[in-house]
Amino acid sequence: MTAQQAIAPPCAPPGSPGDVTPTSGVIHVNSRHTSGFTVIGNHLAQHGELSLLAIGLAVHIQSLPEGAKIGVKVLAARFPESEMRIAAALRELEAAGYLRRIRVRLRDGRVRTRTESHNRPYAMAPTPPVPHEAPRATTPPPPLGNPRTEPKPGAAPAPTPLPQPRTPTLHRTAALLLADLRRHAPVLTLSEADVAALAPGVAAWLEREAHPDAIRRALTTDLPAPLAHPARLLRHRITTLLPPPLPAPAAPPTVIPLQNCDDCNRAFRAPEPGQCRDCRNGGFQ
Known about the structure:
- The chain is mainly alpha-helical.
- Among the domains are: 42-140, Arc Repressor Mutant, subunit A, CATH 1.10.10; 168-240, no CATH class.
- Helix content is 32%, strand content 7%.
- It contains 10 helices and 4 strands; from the N terminus they run ααααββαααααββα.
- The chain has a two-stranded antiparallel sheet. Strands 3-4 form a two-stranded antiparallel ribbon.
- Strand 3 (258-260) and strand 4 (267-269) form a beta hairpin.
- The chain is elongated and about 105 Å long.
């Protein structure tokens, strides 16, 4: 009998009925960590409004040991991003509740600023006990609000209210600026409803004398890719990057006018005509 010869490789065996491996997209190949790892919630890793830089900084900060320095200059020396971008990312995390700065008074009377890193936004987490060395902390915890409206664990925190201008006269200019953003970044194509909703926040920037070019750069620089919710990202940036009001111009220095002494005709400075100091003291000796 002639021996059977294989002339083609065998076909791949069919998958089992319970096989749920996707045919496209990411496939996770996980290894179990037993040491040196940090647990990160999906509410942070998949945050819909935070930039990728802010999410990465939050992960890095949560992996650091207690007492580690996380100042802007320290982080800029560790990573290639500029101090300005890192400072903006830290402000994002503070606005979203992942970082919290509080001022505490030590037992010796000195006041220090303490930075807390929260693995869940602190508005969603139980209020931590007051540290023993800070019985008179000057910044109280945020109110918890109505329990019926509290966000569920793992959900993104509620958006921060948009800043509102004092007068509505700048709304049209703000709306035109928002509608024009798509000329500079096509992903920022907004609907009419989005423009109307965001216009008061941009009007608040204009009211504080921010130049339209500066506003445009703040809203279009370093956009995440892909950008699924442009209006939500713009709302976050308009709120967290709002510049402070310009200080009032300094009053001009008061100049005391020159007067001629009624007795010796010497010039001297005084608010009103009269005698110079020497003549008031009895003249020259």
